[in-house]
Design brief:
2 domains; Alpha/beta knot; Trp Operon Repressor, Chain A; alpha/beta; 9 strands; 225 residues; single chain; binds 6-chloroguanine; two-stranded antiparallel sheet
């Protein structure tokens, strides 16, 4: 899968995909992430990409022309399944959306900034608008990094048994159970006996009960449906 990210602050996206599982996904050739600096594509002087909003009001708006030029160029090069705009007024990103996008083909992700982008680009090009939660970030870059990470690790072949997504929180509408490693006793606190029993059925039952309890306490909304 190829993901093209469009940003006016591309430096914010240098590190998130350069390590760990995102790095391995790219090294394996399963994921290609390309970050584009929107200023490179503007037809205006001095790399200008934003301007005052018509009708007045504080805050700059990203102009349609640079975005249209870059999106048209990308669409000539390959097919895209979705053209996504990261914005706090989008639908809230979640695991089912990540699952679907991980299987659906190439993506363009546009990071908003300032007061956002010209509505005509949203009407003419954008197929999906995503938020990562009910709080405001100073730009869409960190949100885009979250979305790409969540999708990238689900691409078939990226994870192995060790990192399997099957036991993730949310994958079965339950939060993940507690985990322990060595030592078996730390500052007087022992690892739960069930996990030390060697009885796989008992261990699975314990994990399920713990997951259920955690979910009831922290996220009862997940159990409603
Ligand atoms: Cl996608 N962008 C911004 N600027 N803030 C957000 C967000 C996105 N999602 C949650 N807050």
């Amino acid at each position: 899968m190829r993901i093209d990210i469009i940003s006016v602050v591309p430096g914010l996206l240098e590190s998130p995909f350069a390590h760990s599982i995102m790095k391995r996904a790219q090294d394996k050739g399963l994921l290609e992430v390309e970050v584009h600096n929107l200023r490179t594509y503007t037809p205006y002087k001095q790399g200008q990409v934003d301007d005052y909003q018509f009708g007045g009001g504080a805050g700059m708006v990203i102009m349609p022309e640079p975005l249209a030029i870059l999106i048209d160029k990308l669409k000539e090069e390959r097919e895209y399944a979705e053209i996504i705009f990261m914005t706090p007024d989008g639908i809230t990103f979640n695991q089912p959306i990540a699952n679907r996008l991980s299987l659906g083909g190439n993506l363009i992700i546009i990071c908003g900034h300032y007061k956002g982008i010209d509505q005509r680009i949203r009407d003419m090009y954008i197929t999906m608008e995503l938020s990562i939660g009910d709080y405001v970030l100073s730009g869409g870059e960190l949100a885009a990094a979250v979305v790409v990470d969540a999708i990238g690790r689900l691409i078939p072949g990226v994870l192995n048994d060790e990192t399997s997504a099957l036991t993730d929180s949310f994958q079965d509408n339950l939060l993940a159970p507690p985990v322990y490693t060595r030592p078996a006793e730390f500052r007087g606190v022992k690892v739960p006996a069930e996990l030390m029993s060697g009885n796989h059925k008992l261990i699975e039952e314990w994990r399920y009960q713990q997951a259920l309890e955690r979910t009831k306490e922290r996220r009862p909304d997940l159990l409603e449906d």
